[in-house]
Structure formats: structure tokens, C-alpha cells
Amino acid sequence: MKQLETERLILRAFRAEDFAAVHAYASTVKNTVFMPFGPNSEEETRDFIERAIARSLEEPCRHYEFAVTLRDTGALIGGCSIRLTSGSQAEVGWILHRGHWRKGYGTELGRALLAFGFDELGLHRVAARCDAENAASYGVMEKLGMRREGVFLEAHRANKLSDQQYGDELVYAMLKDEWDARKEMTVYNALPCAFDGFIDVPLLESGEVRLVCTKKSPAEPEKKYVPNYHFAVCRGSEKIGAINLRVGYADGLYYGGQIGYEIDEAYRGRGYAVAACRLLVPVAKAHGMTKLLVTNNVENAASRRVCEKLGARLVRRARVPEWSDLYRKGIRFVNIFELNVD
Q1: CA distances (Å), 24 to each of 37, 86, 115, 139, 188, in order?
Q2: DSSP state letters, 287-298
Q3: Which residue of 77, 152, 200, 245 is most buried, as measured by CB atoms within 10 A?
């Protein structure tokens, strides 16, 4: 069975000699309170290890059980799995010894499982489920970018410390295109940008329009807002629209873009939006930016044509995540275009 490696972890096949480390987490209520198994007897732990070893030898493998070990010491601190439920779908799960909680290992191993599922197994959808009271587990799912797809009431036996008979279950999932979008987001967020304060905006005009800076909004880290230049789009002395440039790269800008514009209805279809976008390039250059994202609602054909006339490259049609401001405005899919800052 394939071994997976991360910065701090090695996920490998279970071995018979792993018994003591596995039993240390599988035999306690605190570790297994939200699990469908446990607390294990010694016999139950040995049965699990035997099954895990047998599964690792299957060809083709359809249920990957990984021992989670620390890269620097080799110590076994938990287990995780990815189980194929159909030809293109799978379910993931994990458990860590309580002595290693709150160190980010869950997110790290979860990301490794998703990468293995999507990039190597070629899966279309990966799901995960947990007790609705297991905030630590669904917190990991949300950090991984998985979507909450549903709440199933009284879907399983209640957790081991509950006085109820049944408990609710949450289901999260991610699609291949969402995984690819998150990988792209990471690449864009690593692009260079130098913001040491707002610049004195140079004269921005072409034969068609002129941009007049009306406001400079500082970053608001608590809202994850980056610095923002606001411009009036003018034709002669007449204001015909507005455009803004967001300086920097962030998760929200992958879906919302660095450029936002609006041309008054009476002046649309004359190329003013294209001209205004091009005039922002010197300001982006002044902050060391090399690429700008311009996005639009997939239903907005006119905005898409603006991007095409700019010569921007269509990166993808992306599903808008629920945490995005765009989602709260009712937008579910956007076209993401990339414009080089030459």
C-alpha cells in the first residue's frame, strides 16, 4: 500500500507491532467518545490491526487504512482512512491520540488524504461524516475546504457520554473541481505583492476614458479585506461608472477578483469597461503584482466579453463557497479570468 508523507507526518500501513500505540487511543472513552467503535478490548484492537493489514494487501485496494506517525520520531499517534464507496467516490476518516490534539495534525493528514484521493486515485467526490457535537472533527473538515452537505437527525447511536439514545450526524464533501480550485488559490496567494502604503496615483487616461481616484480603503484584516483603490470612470467631465483595484492576494479574491467594475447602463457596450481595466495596470505594477484576477457571474455574458476583449485567460468556472461574500449575494458559480500585468 502506498505511503503518504507530509511536512510532519508519515502515513503508512499498519503493522502487528503497532498494537500498544493503537490500543492507547482505541481503548479510552475520551479518544473514542464520537467514534462508532471503542473503547476497545485488546482483542478488538488486534482484530482491527489484522483487518487493516489485510486491506493494505488487497489488489486493487479499496479501503486504505493508514497509521499516522510522526516524521521525526516514528511514533504512532493515530489512524486515518480513505474508503472507496464507488468507482469515483470515497469517504475519509481519522482519529488521533488525545495527547496530540490541537496541533494541526488533523488538517495536515486530511489534506494528504484529499490529495491522494483526487490527484492519485482520480476521484470525483470525497465525503466525511461526524457526530454533530464533534466540533473538532467538523472544524478540520471546514479548514480543508469541505462543504457541509447535510445534517441527518438521530442517524446513529449517541456519543458515549450522552444521555440520549441517538445522535445527529453531519456530512461534508468536496468535489474534484473544488479541490483543484483550492490548489490554484494557494498558487495565487503566493504571488508577489508589495504594499507599503497607497501610492500617489498617476494620471490614468486613454482616448476613451479617464479614472479619478475617489477613495483609498485600508486593509481590514479582521474582515479579510485587502487595501482597495476606488475610481470614478469618467468620459470627459461626466462620471459614467466606477472601478476598483484590490491590492494583494487572498482566498476571497480568488472568487471576487482584484478588479471590480460597473458601467452605467446608458454607456455599456462601448468598450469603456475594457479601457478602464487596462488603465489600472500601472497601479498594480507599482505594488509588484504580476497577475490580476477578474471574475464574473457565469450568467453575466457581457462581463465575460469584457474579460475576453482584455485578452484575459479563462482559468475555470468555479463553484462559489458558502463563506464567500458572493455566495451571500446569491451567486453560485463564477468565471475566473487571469490578466497578466505586463
Answers
A1: 14, 33, 28, 24, 42
A2: TT--EEEEEEET
A3: 245
